[in-house]
Amino acid sequence: MIENRSLPPNTVLPHVTYDDVIEAIAWLTRHFGFSEHYRYGDPTSGAQMYVGNAWIMLHKTSDGSATPSQVGRGTQCLTIFIENVDEHFAATKSAGATIVEDLHETVYGEMQFAAKDLAGHLWIFSRHARDVSPDEWGAQVAEGASDQSSSIRPSTQCLPTRADT
Hints:
By secondary structure, the protein is α/β, with parallel strands linked by helices. Helix content is about 15%, strand content about 30%.
């Protein structure tokens, strides 16, 4: 595969929509610890940011797009894997972000917390706490997928998250 210095080598590069990209850059930096890689447009209509090894693109809302706060409900959830999730939780909380799920260990072995950003996007910050097979917590592994189960982690916020659920 050819390397492109304009794009990270990640398999998925989420694009997240905001009314004000400059405000979103400042908010994501201050509250979630993201760093800006570049911005484009005059006025600014997009940017690329990262935290740890996770990269995202920011885009200004346009015809046919809206933020979760504009449509009145969540539209997706982004999970960011980060090693120092305990410190990240404390920093995010002290910066004033809306925490919707406190830091805890899930039934599927993740230490995570969830927060909403200035536009209502749901973000989950997670670290692998222990290795758990999907069938150990009640998931049904697809036939033929068992060889890959060690590298596949379930999407969060759509699954039971507390050991007592």
